[in-house]
Amino acid sequence: MRVWKYRRVITITAFFAAVALFTLLIYRIRLEQNASQREAGYQSALREYSAVLMPGATRKEVEGILRSKGAQFHRECCGGSIAESSDLVRIGSDPDNWVCVGNPVYLEIQFDVADVRSQPRKPVSDGDIYTSVTVIHKPGTCL
Q1: What residues make up the domain containing 32?
Q2: Of 7, 96, 114, 123, which is most buried by a Cβ count within 10 Å?
Q3: pLDDT higher than threshold 90 for residue 105
Q4: What is the count of structural domains for the chain?
Q5: Measured between alpha carbons, how far is residue 32 from residues 18, 27, 73, 121 in Å?
Q6: Distances in Å between the alpha carbon of 28 and those of 14, 35, 67, 139?
Q7: Inter-residue contact 89 to 76 (CB < 8 Å)
């Protein structure tokens, strides 16, 4: 009689373990699908802006295009050096994780500073030259 009791307990435990594993598998697949869809959206925005923005345009021209599209952006100075600056356009956010909350995704529109020597204290100016646009993922508020 006791053998049947243990077999029943083992069978029920195995069943719930299989259901839990199956649920985790489905959850993981959905996470990957959502990430792929988000990344496709980011790449779509990148293609859209890349088609409109022409390398060699001035920051004033680029920001005029951004305003005409209704895009909100902010200027950021000195990515890799004093000779570089960028405008950031928020295009979405990645889901929260265990460490960070609110992880924004931006298009980084990069510029070469027109003349660093003539404007040493003002590295961001309307005359800066557009060079490229990339997608960047920034961490939000982290522990």
Answers
A1: 2-142
A2: 123
A3: yes
A4: 1
A5: 21, 9, 29, 45
A6: 21, 11, 39, 22
A7: no
